[in-house]
Amino acid sequence: MQKVTLASELRNVIADWRSAGERIAFVPTMGNLHAGHLKLVSEARQKADRVVVSIFVNPTQFGAGEDFETYPRTEREDQEKLETVGADLLFLPPVSEMYMPDAKTVVSVAGLSELHCGASRPGHFNGVATVVCKLFNLVQPDIALFGLKDFQQLAVIRTMVRDLNFPVEIIGVDTVREPSGLAMSSRNGYLSTEEIKAAPKLYESLCMARDAVLSGKQAYADIEIQAMLSLREAGFQPDYFSICRSNDLKKAEAEDKDLVILAAAKLGRTRLIDNIYFSR
Known about the structure:
- The chain is built from ten helices and nine strands.
- The protein is an alpha/beta fold.
- A six-stranded parallel sheet has the order 1-4-3-2-5-6, sandwiched between helices. Strands 7-8-9 form a three-stranded antiparallel sheet, covered by helices on one side.
């Protein structure tokens, strides 16, 4: 596996692959890789001739008081893991390579970015959209793979790609979970031993809400309120728990068929997100 840190080096490698007519897959990450990330790379390996992975802890998607400085950085271990799953190229740029000191351009996906996580993390999805846009311009992949755990993020990126005419196929890959049901996340390492025991209740609450919907209950607001109460009783500080249409992430109505339930809650100092999507 090659490793490059400069955009010029990346472009040179990509140009050689393009000249050879090779299909390129891209997996953007912030590092501290777990089995969920590795599944993305393995899926990419099956769909393309070359796989590029980026590790970049993007400062513009962190808000004031969030964990940018303390976000886990495990570059050596990450490189070893990527080699085991067949990544061809690791792009590991410094912040100075990705953002000019006087950068003025921000990519914003209106309508989606202000909902759910965007309501409690203002500007977060602008940071996500901007850095993914920049990475797509640098890598110029044929396909890019993202985990479905970050369902809203994926919706933002799909919309950006559509609206800006990026010739990139976006592929969502199912969430990888611990045996307990807890969605794998780089931030799970913040959880204490007791919090790890409680954390699966977030996914349990999503499953219970899905089952209530599938059983025919149409008072979605009541289902959401009950889920929030259950999470508080389990020691969480819920941010939101929303039954939505999967196409635009707005509140679902009784006649909607394709749904996603989105949830975010703090457990101790750790903010967890999860979702479950289904049709009825």
